[in-house]
Amino acid sequence: MRRNLYRGRGAPANPEGRFETLEVEADPESAHDHAPRLQTRYLRDDSRTILVRNSSPDLSFDYSLNPYRGCEHGCAYCYARPTHEYLGFSAGLDFECRILVKEEAPALLREALGKRSWRPKTVAMSGVTDCYQPVERRLRITRGCLEVFAETLNPVGIVTKNHLVTRDMDLLGTLATVDACAVTLSIPTLDPELARVLEPRASAPARRLAAVERLSTAGIRTGVLVAPVIPGLTEHEIPEIVKRAATAGASGVGYVLLRLPWGLKSLFEQWLRVHRPQRAERVLARIRDVRDGELTDNTWGRRHTGSGTYAGQIATLFKVARARNGLDDKQPGLSTASFQRPVPPGQGRLF
Q1: What is the dihedral of CA 228, 159, 78, 325, to 10 degrees?
Q2: For a disulfide at 163, which of 180, 203, 224, 255, Cβ 3.0-4.6 Å?
Q3: Which residues, 6 or more positions from 171, have their beta carbon under 8 angstroms from its beta carbon?
């Protein structure tokens, strides 16, 4: 089967979203022969609120903040891809090439934390898309939000696949002095060749481990999330990832099984047949093993861990690896004790 049409992209196709009524399909032969270079476009997002309340019992945070919609990292397995369909885009290539940018995010965050109704809670950054995707190097929106968190000492938790998080160690260090920040590096594989096609524009696995080491050495609470575990493809790597995380100084480690909501099921199956054709059927069978015969199961309480014998074996493999390396799967909550409301423009603090 042919390789990806567009080099450096994770999705093998750009199907119409499930809410669209018209679909245009290019001739596959001419498309491969004359495919243009795919450029990323950045679109302004004029959202007037920035904090989203979490209602899922599977997640440990109350609020999330996402400076970007869509993600140029292009991870083939990303559960957030179907969210782009609500914007009239595709969950495929559009998700990684049409990025909505919330330029006003720092100002909106300052406004939200300054309201008398706000009670300090941990805010998760990258609850949907990565707040340290490549364009952050230039736009610095995530850094602007961290400046607000560092001023107010409101706790923040970050999940990322990008070494770029180490750029903001000064702000993270300020928050760490009052136990108000935690950073988690997501590492589903240590195989650089697999990572290159699975998550083409994320930092290489070795760079993510280097970020864990730098952050933890600086006294910033740092963990590793083996996510997603892809049954039949990556679960054998769990012991080595956990071992390398411990060596790098991680204080905790967790895992999440692959989730394939909505159209992501067909996209990921296409990815398998392009990049791992010899293992595609085995992987799909293993996914069904942990999802009660289906390719996805969104039931709260088991969507992150799966069900059945094979899911239990993966859980046991992870627990043994974690115990051998002396790591925790759950870290204590962050502190809200030092929170202080942001100072209005032109006004200094009295105390």
Answers
A1: -10
A2: 203
A3: 143, 146, 147, 149, 150
Contact assessment for residue 14 and residue 92, using Cβ atoms and an 8 Å cutoff: yes
Q: Record the tokens describing residue 45, joined without a space.
A: 């997002």
- Output the six-digit token pair for 302: 């088991």
What's the rounded Cα separation, in Å, for the pair 336 and 247?
30
Question: How many whole angstroms separate alpha carbon 299 and alpha carbon 202?
Answer: 29
pLDDT of residue 297: 86
Confirm if 307 and 290 have CB atoms less than 8 A apart.
yes
- d(Cα 239, Cα 247) in Å, to the nearest integer? 12
Amino acid at 276: R
Q: Which of 308, 262, 263, 315 is nearest to 287 (CA)?
A: 308
Residues 6+ apart with CB under 8 A from 24: 16
Angle in degrees, CA 288, 294, 299, rounded to 5: 110
* pLDDT, tens only, 81-134: 999 999 999 999 999 999 999 999 999 999 999 999 999 999 999 888 999 999
199-247 pLDDT per residue, tens: 999 999 999 999 999 999 999 999 999 999 999 999 999 999 999 999 9
> Residue 9 in contact with residue 96, Cβ under 8 Å?
yes
Report residue 204 as tokens.
Answer: 């290489």
Question: Is the separation of the CB atoms in 12 and 267 below 8 Å?
Answer: yes
Q: Name residue 257's beta-bridge partners.
A: 229
- The residue behind tokens 């679109």 is 43
Distance CA 307, CA 304 (A): 10
Question: What phi and psi, each to the nearest 5 degrees, are found at residue 112?
Answer: -65, -45
Q: How far apart are CA 339 and CA 279, in angstroms?
A: 51
Residues 293, 161: Cα–Cα separation, whole Å? 30
Number of helices (H), then strands (E), in the chain: 12, 10
User: Residue 161: which of 129, 202, 195, 131 has the closest Cα?
Assistant: 202
Phi-psi region of 218 (alpha: psi -120 to 50; beta: other; left: phi over 0): alpha
Q: How far is CA 315 from the centre of its chain?
A: 21
Q: Where are the beta strands (DSSP E) in 170-329?
A: 181-186, 221-229, 252-257
